[in-house]
Amino acid sequence: MNNILIIGAGRSSIALINYVLKKAQEFQWFVTVADADPQLAESKVNGHPNGRSTWLDVMKVNDRKELIERADVVVSLLPAHLHLEVAKDCIRLKKHLITASYVSKEMYQLGNQARENNLIFMGEMGLDPGIDHMSAMQKIEEIKENGGKLTAFRSYTGGLIAPESDDNPWHYKFTWNPRNVVTAGRGTAQYLEGGKYKYIPYRRLFTKYRPVDIQGMGEYEVYANRDSLLYREVYGLKDIPNILRGTIRAKGFCDAWAALVKIGLTNGTYPILDSEKLTYHALMEAFTSDEPGNSVKEKIAHLIREEPNSEVMQKLEWLGLFRKKKINLPNATPALILEELLLDKWKLKKTDKDMIIMQHEFEYKLKGKKKCLISTLVLKGVDATDTAMARLVGLPMGIFVRLVMQGQIKTTGVNIPVMKQVYEPVLEELKEYGVEFIEKEIDL
Amino acid sequence: MNNILIIGAGRSSIALINYVLKKAQEFQWFVTVADADPQLAESKVNGHPNGRSTWLDVMKVNDRKELIERADVVVSLLPAHLHLEVAKDCIRLKKHLITASYVSKEMYQLGNQARENNLIFMGEMGLDPGIDHMSAMQKIEEIKENGGKLTAFRSYTGGLIAPESDDNPWHYKFTWNPRNVVTAGRGTAQYLEGGKYKYIPYRRLFTKYRPVDIQGMGEYEVYANRDSLLYREVYGLKDIPNILRGTIRAKGFCDAWAALVKIGLTNGTYPILDSEKLTYHALMEAFTSDEPGNSVKEKIAHLIREEPNSEVMQKLEWLGLFRKKKINLPNATPALILEELLLDKWKLKKTDKDMIIMQHEFEYKLKGKKKCLISTLVLKGVDATDTAMARLVGLPMGIFVRLVMQGQIKTTGVNIPVMKQVYEPVLEELKEYGVEFIEKEIDL
Questions:
Q1: Closest Cα in chain A, distance from residue B280 (Å)
Q2: For a pLDDT cut of 90, what percent of chain B falls above it?
Q3: Across all residues in chain A, what is the average pLDDT?
Q4: What domains can be seen in chain B, in order of their start residue?
Q5: Is A199 close to B262, i.e. CB distance below 8 A?
């Protein structure tokens, strides 16, 4: 095995490509980076002797197959819905496949075929999902091996802006897919508390955040994810009475985002009529009806039960929602209008550093004592290009590529990284790149 | 022409079938009533010399075509999604078609074919939609003919319980499709006010009701419908600056329904896990999280910002939402659990009278003066079988059947009843059945 194909050279690919090229030089591998934008691929390979860039329209079946045919291991950084076709090619052409995306039901259905062909299909091999699985599983298995019985598992992750680059009242900038931020939480969050299922509808999700103390960083807010119950079985926590997964935001964020939800600005189901002719001010007015007040701002403050000069209202005002500036998007949904506005206001500056926080809390009983282990990762980026996000998504995939290339992975079929043979070497090597969890154990 | 086919003999069919059978005797027509339940059809025809009942599974194409072939006019009381196949048969077999359902886009696309074959396809020929179109159009055209210029049109309808049969704190019982009541308002209500589009998201729809004085009945509440903007063009009100359609409820209903929405009980998008093992009390608990309070009731009161003994809380309590009684529905959505509960609590007793209220408000300028015409219909049913709802849905269709049979309708193609040749004779004859609008004109 000496050929690696990486499909996709977008902004999450840098750390992965750099890692793989470095290892390629050491182990005499050859790396092909394919993208629909050949210049983008070229800029990432950047003349490296062990790499080449190529143009690929992933919808062109023959081109795609030809590239995959020449590889031993394929890494797909494509949007999630495009993985499946690549996966089917990998089955036919007998190639290993690695992605950072959630494993779909359709992908899991390829499990038997992958196993029969001795193929490794590893999904959820990035940050979240990815490092969250690996770091949680390591601790869960340690606690169990020591004879502990887990009673609660809570796991929080946030893609944030580092304090030194934080210069807006929301204490937030886009470090990842803006659309996912605008649509976050739609549906109903489900989790387990005291052995009982709990439900938080979207309409009050951002009002039901909990304060969380992040080791070394101070207080943040966490709102519940939709998928808290999803990994109980794979984590070996089938009967745990308390389980919660959540998203970390800076203090004050959730109340202000709850206001956007309440006004109706995160709704993506219908178009605002003549939106291209409206101002943001007129859009806000369109959401008011019988609220008391002399201005749209006062009416909106009343609608969201805030004082006109509250911190939440200041955040809305900072976004420009009360400005008489044209929206200029034809027939756009409220969510799209909001996304466009935030893209501008929450843009990373070139020198801005992003920051990833992940914190797990494991409550368990050991020899009659109740304990809590808190395990925390904080990593900051270097600038707006070399982000902590790109590193934490790319490095686990890169390290896993190395493990596969060197024949160190024995498990075949469709998997996520919850097995020791995967998480142990990956987490160990991640430390070399400054990716290290700090731990604290407290008696409850 | 002397054969009429009525497909569907459910509870909305009584007034229609009785009317058509009576006229059949007078004019020597023959009426076939077809239903998947032949006994139901038989009970409606009830041995009438001009009628017969027959069994029909509407999905059996040949049976359906055979029946339609023998008719001159077809009335479909089927669920809305089944009309289209009947309509296509009617095109092929050259038969007129009448329904009380909203005309779908697909149905409108049959317009040319219907016209080419000289066929009358009339939809929205019931109460709402139906009588609302006809009664509004009559007044709109009257005002225009007198030289008035309309500045506002508001139209409200409610299927309610008559005061003498009102014996529960919600002042509401099911007189129509329960599912439609539980899902009412999902989406975003749009309307026009002062020339500006206004939007009310579902999350606050039931908090943004307006008090409306109904002539002769006192004060009710109205919440906005989704479709206020829909009929501007067909009503000839393209440039009107104020338009609102709404649903009428008794005082106090909307605040209490808003509480159900807020808690999350009207959500139909996900199943409550193990719902068959839960009590209503446990379900309510599952929607609470960090609210203060010593009991689930207190926590819910806090969640909906009510005092534990407020009128809203009393309504929830009356529904049995805090009782430790098993739900007994497996994997049901909150909306389905609520629907099942309400089916029991809001059931019409045999002797209960329902009541339909419809009120239009037309604001207009005439010779420099601002006026408002208020036109109101109130009709009560006789008992739980002979309901005002069934009369007001069935009689317009019956009268229209007569008009078609007697060759008095000249317009062909797919239509809704907004033309004078339809609304004038229908509204006139409805008066014989006690269906009459009272009017009041006030200077503004």
A1: 14
A2: 97
A3: 96
A4: 3-129+389-433 (3.40.50.720), 131-256+349-388+438-443 (3.30.360.10), 260-345 (1.10.1870)
A5: no
